[in-house]
Amino acid sequence: MLKKDLIEKNPIRHLKGESDAKESSRMGLVMAQAGTGKTALLVQIALDSLLNDKQVVHVSVGQSLDKTKLWYEDMFKDIAEGCKLDNAGEIHDGIMRNRMIITFNESKFSLAKLEERLHDLVQQNVIKPSCMVVDGFDFVKTDRAVLEGMRELAKAMDLQIWFSSVCSEGADSQSATAVPAPCNGMEDLFNTVVLLQPVPQSDCIDLKIIKGSAAVSKCGKLLKLDPRTFMIREDCK
Amino acid sequence: MRDITKVRNIGISAHIDSGKTTLTERILFYTQRIHAIHEVRGKDGVGAKMDSMELERERGITICSAATYCDWKDHAINIIDTPGHVDFTIEVERALRVLDGAVLILCSVGGVQSQSITVNRQMTRYRVPRVAFINKCDRTGANPDRVIKQLRDKLALNAVPIQVPMGLEGDMQGLIDLVRMKAIYFDGENGDKIREEEIPAQYKEECDIKREEMLDAVSMFSDELMEAVLEGTPTEEMIMAAIRTGTLSMEFTPVMMGTAYKNKGVQLLLDAVVSYLPCPTDVDNFALDLDHDEAEVKVSNNSSDPLLALAFKLEDGRYGQLTYVRTYQGTLTKGDSIVNVRTGKKAKVGRLVRMHSDDMEEIDEAGSGDIVALFGIDCASGDTFTSGSDYNFSMTSMHVPAPVISLSIAPVDNKAQDNMSKALNRFTKEDPTFKTFVDPETMETIISGMGELHLDVYVERMKREYKAEVTVGAPQVAYRETITQRAEFNYTHKKQTGGSGQFGRVAGFIEPMEEGEYEFVDKIVGGSVPREYIPSCDKGFQKCLDKGALVGAHVTGVRCTITDGASHAVDSSDIAFQLAAIGGFKEAYAKAKPMIMEPIMKVAAEGPSEFQGSIMGSLNQRRGIIIGTNEEDAYTVIEAEVPLSEMFGYSTDLRSLTQGKAEFTMEFAAYRQVPKSVAEELIAKALKNKK
To answer: How near does any CA of chain B get to the CA of A83, in Å?
Structure first.
C-alpha cells in the first residue's frame, strides 16, 4: 500500500466541519469513556496531517514525553503493518521530523503559556504547525473563556485544533445527538464533535458524529473503525 | 562485625564553590580523622585532604570522588566526595549509585544554582534521601530564608528548617536547635567545644514560630507525634523519629545551616546524618539476574548471604591499584576468593582497607552495606564481584554502548610515550566507554569515547597525573557506511607474472540486512569454488568492511552471498580468492547505493523557561530534530536528536546563549543516514585526504 491509500482511509478525511468553518482553523473534539482510545484517535488525526507533509504540535497534559512518543511509534507501526505500507522506514523518519511534542504538568498548563510556546516555535523557525492535538485537557475545570481563547489562536495561526475529553461518569453517552458532559453547553465552540464507542463482541469501534457530518462515507453519521489502527474498515465503506 | 544499622554511606553534593570540600575537611577534623585543618586554596601547600588529585588541588575543584571513612558517635560514616562541576556528571552518577543518603549543600548567598538542580534531579532519580545544609552563613548577603524558599520552589522539596541561626554574616554566634530548643555555641579555636545554653530572649519568639511550623510539617509522618503535638507534649524522640520517617520517604527535607569555614554547625550536621539519613537496610537496591535477561532482583543486605559487591572506582595511587567496592550483601573477608562476574575470573582478596582519602587502615572483613577498598584486584570500574561463579548477578548492566567520537593523540617525546600507555591502560579499565587502539594505516594512537568532553577530561588527566604530554588531533565522528540495495558481482582475479600465477573467480551478490554487522552466506553448489577456498572469500569480504569506499568508514549491515565461481588447478590459492572477493565486493558496493551514516545523539537541554525559544533555535541550527519540550516548574526540558558532528562546542554556545543558566546532557541514540549535502561534503573531504 502506498502513502496515498493510507491518507484515504484515515477517518478524519470523512469528517467535515459544520457549515462555513474553514478547514484549516477548525476545532474538533473527540469524546469517549476512559480507555476507549481517545489518544489513539488524536494520534491518528496527527498522523494524517503528518502524512500530508504538514507539521503537527502534540500538546500532552499530564503525560510524559516518552509516553507520548511511544504512542506515535506504536500507532505508526500498527498502521504500517496493518496496511502493509511500503518503505515504512522512510515515511516514518520523514513524518517524525514534522512532529513536535509539548508536555505540561497538569497544574502548569495555561493558555498563555501554550500561546507563548507556539509563538516561540514559529519565531525560531523550528516548526510551523497546521494542526495541533491537545490531549488530557481538563474540561471539567475549564471555563469557556479558555476555549474561546483557543478558537482565537486557531484563527490567528491558521491551525486546526483537536481536543480529547473523557465523558463524565454516568453521562448519557448513548444518545446520538447530545454532547455528553462535561462538554455539554460548549458544542457551539467546536466545528466537529465525535464520540468513540467500542462495540461489544465485535472487532470494531463506532465513531459517532455528533456534530458535523461525514462527507464521503455512505454510512451517514456512523463510521466503523479498526480498533488497532483506527482506520476506517474496508467493509464499512 | 559492625552493626549494619550503624553504617551511613553518604555523599556530599553541591554546586561548585558552595564549600563542599571545606565542609568535608571539617567533618574529618571533628571525627578526629585529621588533626589540622587545611584550606582548599590553602597557603600551606598541603591542600584539603579530600582533593587528593593534583589537578583538583590546582584548580580548587574536586573531580573524582574519593571515598573516606570516619566515626561519629559510634556510627560509621563513609563519605563519597562527589564532584560539583557540570561536566563530570558521569562521576556524580556513579557515586550516587553507591550512596544511601546525601547532604545537599547550598551557599547561603548563591542559593539554588543550576548545578544544584541537576544534582537534585539525579538524586531523585536514584532515590537518594537527603538533608540540606545551608553553608557560608558568615558571608555578606547571607539569607537562609531565601534559600529555603528556593529549595521549595525550584527543587520542589518539602524543605523545613530545623535550626535557626543566631545572627548572620559577620556576627554569627551559633545556632538554635528547634528539636531540642537549645542554643548551641561553637567555642575554641576550631569550634570543637560545643556549649549548650538556653535560647537568648531576642530569639525566643522567632524560635517558637519556626518550631510550630516544623512540628506542623513533620507531624504528617507520625500519628503519634500529631497526637502529642495536639496535647502539647511532643518529645524529642518522637520529633526525631518523624523527621527520619519523612526524610527516608523523600517527602521531607530537613534544613540545617552554619558555616564550615568558620567552624559552625558541622557537628550538628553530623548528628543529623546519623539520626535522619538511612542505613543500608533502609534502602532498596537491585541487582540484575544475568541468567534471566537482566531481570531486577532486590538485594538482601544480609551479611551471611552470598557476596554481591560493586567496584565503583579505581585509583592508581602510590600503593598500586586500589579498587573501591561497595558490598550490597554478604561479607568480604580477607583471604576469600571472589569472582568477577564480567570476566568470570577468580581473584583472591589480599588486602582489605578502609580509606581515608590518602591514608588507610587495614581491616579483616567488611559486612554488607560497607564501602572499602581492595588491593591487587584486576578489574574495571563498574564490575560486580560475587562469591562464586554459580551466583550470576550483576549490579550494573553488562551492556556497554559503542564509542561515537574519536581523537588521535601523539606523545611529544619518548618519556611521554611510556606514560601515555600506562595512562591509557588505566583509563580503559576505569571506564568501559573509553577505548583506545592504534590505527594500522596511520600508526596513530586513537582514543574514543562518548563525547567531546569525555575525551577532554582524559587528555587533561593524562597530562596531570601521568605527566604524559600529548598533542591532540581534531575530534572525529565515527561515521559508518552501509548499502541500501542488492547488487551482483562477478569478478575474476587473474595475474600471470611468470612462475605460478593467481587465479580465482567469484560471483554472487551483496544485500543490506537490518540487524548485525556482517554475514557470509555460501551458496555454492557443485564445487565451482573448492571447499578450501570458501573461507578465503569470507576473509576477503571482511577486509573490505574496515574501510568503505565512500569515506573510509566502517561498513556495517551487509550480507555477502557467493553463488558461483571458478578455480584453476595450479594457479588458485588462498590469496587469489581473497583478492577475488575484495574485487567482487568493490564492484558490487558501488552499485548497491552505499550511504553514510552518522551517530545521532539524544540531547536533553534544560534551562529556565524564558530561554527555551533560543535553546530550541540553537538545536535547530545544528540539524537537530526537536522531539518535544517538557515544562517542569520554572524549568523547561527540551529533548532533541542532533547529529554528534554538530554538537562540538555546544556547551560553550549554550552557556553564552542562556547566561550560563542552561545545561545539557547527551547520549548516543542511533546511527542514521546523513543528509545528501553533508554526505557530498564528507566524500569530497575523504577524496582530498586520499590525495
So the answer is: 21
Give residue limits of the domains in chain A: 3-236
Could you tell me where in chain B the CATH 3.30.230.10 domains are found? 481-592
Would you say residue B316 has pLDDT above 70?
Answer: no
Q: Give the model confidence (pLDDT) of B558-580 as tens digits.
A: 999 999 888 888 888 888 899 99
pLDDT digits (tens, 9 = 90+) for A154-200: 888 888 888 888 887 665 555 556 677 777 777 788 888 888 887 77
Task: Show the 3-state SS of B14-77.
Answer: ECCCCCHHHHHHHHHHHCCCCCCCCCCCCCCCCCCCCCCCHHHHHHCCCCCCCEEEEEECCEEE
Nearest Cβ partner of A100 from B613, B626, B637?
B626
Query: Which CATH code, of 3.40.50.720, 3.40.710.10, 3.40.50.620, 3.40.50.300, is assigned to A3-236?
Result: 3.40.50.300
- C-beta atoms of B629 and A113 within 8 A: no
Global pTM? 0.61
Cα(B179)–Cα(B211) distance, integer angstroms:
8
Distance from the B144 Cα atom to the nearest Cα atom in chain A, whole angstroms: 27
Q: In 10 A of CB B285, how many CB atoms? A: 21
Least confident window among B108-122, B267-281, B370-384, B581-595: B108-122
Q: Find the closest chain A residue to B630 by CA distance.
A: A103
Q: Is B626 on the interface with A (CB under 8 A)?
A: yes
Inspect the interface and report whether the beta carbons of A65 and B639 lie closer than 8 Å: yes
Q: Is the ipTM of this complex over 0.85?
A: no
Q: Which residues of B touch A103 (CB under 8 A)?
A: 628-631
